[in-house]
Amino acid sequence: SARDSARESLSEGPEPGTEPPGSPKGRAHDRRSRAGKGRGLPKKGGAGGKGVWGAPGVVYGYQEPDARDPNYDEVAQGDTVYATVVPELEEEELEKNVQPMVLEYFEHGDTSEVMELLRGLNLGGRRPAVAALAVALALEGKASHRELTSRLLAELVGPVVTPEDVAWAFDAMLRDLPDLILDTPEAPQMLGQFIARAVADHALPLDFLERYKGRVDCEHARAALDRAAVLLRIKRDVNRLDNVWGVGGGQRPVKHLVKEMNLLLREYLLSGEVSEAEHCLRELEVPHFHHELVYEAVVMVLEGSGEESVAMMVTLLKVLWETGLVTLDQMNRGFQRVYEELGDISLDAPLAQGLLEQLVELCFDRGVITRALRDACPARGRKRFVSEGDGGEVK
């Protein structure tokens, strides 16, 4: 019948879900890629899709809150700490930043200021280069600069650098000695003194010299290490080699400075070499005390006898004035001290008044002193005795 034929036709048709791949209904439920790629697996392992929590069995840990999240609550996050991050100093920037600090330190001598400035820099692994740069600048400077550098190294150990950093710096300088002696021929001896002072100040490890036994081929490095060993052997009972650079500048006692200036002037009167006297005065490194040289020079003329010493002292003062070694203030202070003590000087040198007037006139004519300083010179007291008819009274 027609009913049986329709039932047979339905039974012969395809079962649900078994539509051919090309049919529209089968294509809608196909999970394979439309481009023909992939293995036909579900995306994200079955954990993807909108509004899902992820794959089954996955436990998520704590995640830092994101400030860009719309639900981010700044009050609920607790205290916020802000820190300034300083980038690590590059190699080419080290000399540009540290060299002005060291040169300025040579002028004021305040180690705490240098330490504060260095703390503001992120030195990182370039801490040893700071000690090497300071020593290199001191080798080209004066004895007082080397003394200041030794003190700086002792103060930097701990807060800024370690003894091993200083050891690395000296090790590098020992290797560079052939180049250093081109500018500073005395570099091996000076570097040896730096090493001895650093070991005595505990800025270097005590076994620093022991590390080089039998391992040094450079003759300049051997000379530096031998110098350090000799100094440490001589001062083995002294904790610090404070006088390895001598007592420089204004740290010298006043009596010692006066003695040195007096000796300088006496040698000048014997030799007549102005350049040598100028060099010796520079080596004393006491520009604030040059008025003592002027005072000693004038007193030496007043206590002597002869016009030759007057002319020589005027020549010396003129050279010191022109080169700027003796400033106007120092020149005035030296002469004013003589004016104030002229009465006491005249007790031992009766001709002091006349010699002083002669010296002052010559100095004024040569442009060494000002007119005001010349006019301030005390005049000779004159006593005029009248005739016997006036009763011999002194007027």
From TrEMBL:
Domain MI: 93-214, 256-379
Cited PROSITE patterns: MI
Skewed-composition ranges (Basic and acidic residues): 1-10
Record-linked InterPro entries: ARM-type_fold, Initiation_fac_eIF4g_MI, PDCD4
GO CC terms of this entry: cytosol; nucleus
Membrane-spanning parts: none
Keywords: Cytoplasm, Nucleus, Repeat
Region described as Disordered: 1-50
GO biological process, one term: negative regulation of DNA-templated transcription
SUPFAM superfamilies for this protein: ARM repeat
Ranges of biased composition (kind: Basic residues): 26-42
Annotated compartments: Cytoplasm
Family under the similarity heading: Belongs to the PDCD4 family.
Designated name of the protein: Programmed cell death protein 4
